[in-house]
Design goal:
This protein has 2 helices and 2 strands; from the N terminus they run E-E-H-H. By secondary structure, it is mostly helical. The mean pLDDT is 81. This is cAMP responsive element binding protein like 2.
Length: 117
């Protein structure tokens, strides 16, 4: 044993793997690792492609909705009320009147603070 800097060093390559490594086994592990890596990469790309596709569909739907709102605004600028907005407004009025009438029935008398359309 050698003494270097107060420490005893033993001859040999301590901590390293033996030189007689089975190269075939090492090569096979490497190939298996590469196969698994390619499989993970394929899955990741499939996931990302699905994500992009769903986002593109959402963008198309939002563009169509925006175009519909633009058409409604242009119609209202010309003094016309689109039938869809009329339906929304009458639907809201009907639901409000139903809510108010059910409140009146529960209270047994008309409530002065309720807004009836």
């Amino acid at each position: 044993p050698q003494v270097v800097g107060g420490k005893v060093k033993k001859p040999g390559k301590r901590g390293r793997k033996p030189a007689k490594i089975d190269l075939k086994a090492k090569l096979e592990r490497s190939r298996q690792s590469a196969r698994e890596c390619r499989a993970r990469k394929k899955l990741r790309y499939q996931y990302l492609e699905e994500l992009v596709s769903s986002r593109e569909r959402a963008i198309c739907a939002l563009r169509e909705e925006l175009e519909m709102y633009k058409q409604w605004c242009m119609a209202m600028d010309q003094g016309k009320i689109p039938s869809e907005i009329k339906a929304l407004l009458t639907g809201e009025e009907q639901s409000k009147s139903q809510q108010n009438s059910s409140r009146h029935m529960k209270a047994g008398k008309t409530d002065a603070n309720s807004n009836s359309w």
